[in-house]
Batch of 3 targets.
Target 1
Amino acid sequence: MSSMSRRHLMFAATGIAAIAAAPRLVFAQAAAPAPAAAAPTGPFTLPPLAYPTNAFEPHIDAKTMEIHHDRHHAAYVTNMNNVAKTNPQLGTAKIEDVLGNLNALDDSIKFTVRNNLGGHANHTMFWEIMGPNGGKPEGEVLAAIDRDLGGLEKFQNDFNAAGGRQFGSGWVFVTVSKDGKLAIETRPNQDNPMMDGKRALMGNDVWEHAYYLNYQNRRADYLKAWWNTVNWAKIAERYAAAKAGTLGV
């Protein structure tokens, strides 16, 4: 065989190897996870976290916080901005007024607003009442817990039990009336006490996306650990606002 023929064979083999490798390279690139989509411009915005995503480790891991805030909550904001394009009144009304009057909405958007504006309201409250080094309940909040919920230990046990009993996805809340009375209530999916004319003092998310990376099916363990993330100073502010009639989301 001539040297020219051997060179041709070598080039051909090299070319075949490169072609064979190319699809694997394309597949590897395609399999990379896409970044979270940015919410479209509109009246609804994703509130930034007031703390780093790893602030609550080991109780809640940074990856769960990142996915929960940047993807799940962001999706509710995106969906509300999309529906507001053809229903601009949603972006100018107070969230509590919209959620408190869902039956006034057109049937074509009622389900979307219930789920996505409810999710936006719930999560906005959720990030607000959490914070590292959250302390302990004091003052009027502690007095209300003692008066209405049987003391801090009983309250936490009852709250955890209610969250554990919530079937499927949902939330466990502490509702607060205008006279400061507290009660433990649960809601399915992204329903919010505002839909019943009430206000949430605080609440915990028991959707699996809130805990599954660390806790899998051990919701009870997550509920217990979550108390390490509660910012009682912020809850005291919300309690004062509720008694003044100014508590919104």
Target 2
Amino acid sequence: MTVLEVLQATTAYLKKHNVENSRLNAEHLMAHALGRKRIELYLDFERELTETELGPLRELVKRRSEGEPLQHLLGTVEFCELTFLCDKRAMVPRPETEQLVELVESRIENRESRIVDVGTGSGVIAISLAAKFPEAKILAVDVSDDALALAQENAAMLNLKDRVQFVKSRLLENVEGAFDLIVANLPYVSTQDRHTLSREVLHDPEVALFAGKRGDELVRELIDQAPTRLHPGGLLALEIGLGQSETLLSALAEKNYRDICSKKDYNGVTRFIFARYG
């Protein structure tokens, strides 16, 4: 079979197994299996594929059809114009979190800011900010040893390991000092909503997904902790779950935060909250 024929057959197979964006997935998997770039497939449509080339591709396609995330199969993910390692040790970064980074960047007034990324996961927020603000002092914390190991591998791969400090901590418990910015994409899914999640999302570590019965427990706890860890006028930036904005905005007001505002993501969902303290 030619490259084009295999691509078409793979697309049909993935579509039959309810994989969204089947053609795009097929292109990524084929390019990865062949060690080529996606664009190069279009220049090679008529080439016959050997059995040696087809074997690894079949295995990848089978795993993708069973719900394993594309990013896990490729081993990498693009985030804020950088390429990060991606595997089952941490949550697959979402496009919404890229938007959080963009919104945070526009609010950083001092390029030498002291920043902490709480619940760093694979490190995408902290490392992306380190790349944008070379003078900033950045700390990344997570409760998971696996996630921290992956984040450190990403920092090393991107030649930013000297720019980000990594600490194991549940929220801010093991963190010292005060910060100009506390940014967090914490677990915000209710344990009662497990049945609503896609099979791809369920490949993420549970510790990165579920916060408790309400879903906003960890975010609320961070809201309580943050005032003593923010410099006067420091910014708290949060990514939150669907339907959580109203109660969390009230919680911030009750704790005497100021300049409280929310922002919608590209899908029109209220996904981000910002507030200053002191």
Target 3
Amino acid sequence: MANSIYKKIYKKIRQYDDIVIVRHIGPDPDAISSQIALRDSIKLSFPNKNVYALGSGVHKFKYIGDLDKIDETKLINPLLIVVDLPNVSRIDGANHVLYKEIVKIDHHPMEDKMGEVELVDTRASSAAELISELILTTRLKLNKAIAENLFIGIVSDSNRFLLSTSKTLRIVSELIDKGHINIKEIYPKLYNRDLSEVKFKAYLADNLKVTENGFAFIKIDNEVIAKYKVDSATPSNMINDFNYINGIYVWVFITHQESNNLYKVNIRSRGPIINEIANKYNGGGHKFASGVRTESLDDVNNLIKDLDDACKKYKESIK
């Protein structure tokens, strides 16, 4: 079954001369590395195709690779490949109605159906794991740079393999062998921090509000972002660092983008199911890693209450 869907995706890639690859807004390393790795593999395999990776860049992830800028209205019968993205509303950098066909490759729970060919596997650790399997089971080509990006995506989204399976580890082993990658060269790119970020992390820890139910949250003002000289994506990139704190079951980082009055809520859990709660507020994600974007402060406050209630029920269930 798995080989069948990968063959269908490969067939679609062969069919089109113009291909655009996108992922979700507010990208993490998995989203960007999957997108760029797939673009570069298709270009390496089919040098005559026009293949583009679109979306807003994040300076912190510049080392993963450059994104493209094009006028998508000038493409002729293009194919859109959507990676690491369950719903149409969060596509970054492309207007999906302009494309003849859409292929989706995602590891989040199914939300929007986008095309006839869709690979949705919630058992995968990351989108990068699915892209790796696509490349390794078809005639798409792999080189060191592509393998390194896929490794970055898997490591970051699996929290250094803590959320992986034996299949994940087999794929990583194959990437290392076939891509001739050096892990020691990759980890500093992912985990080295400026001193300003270390101080910002200390601020988060010092100001985290924790309820008696084991729910923790912090609202991060733009003034604080400016004070510590970090960018707006830094809180979401740090949220996994707050795992394994005794007595905390769910923790939330909330930031506010004044330019579009948008609240960005990152949610993580060590027990309670959170994606069902996030779905109530037009968010989503995995059972233990989800997010919400909303213009409503009331939604944010109600979400906080719902998550605190979920922690209370969970805490009572494990007594």
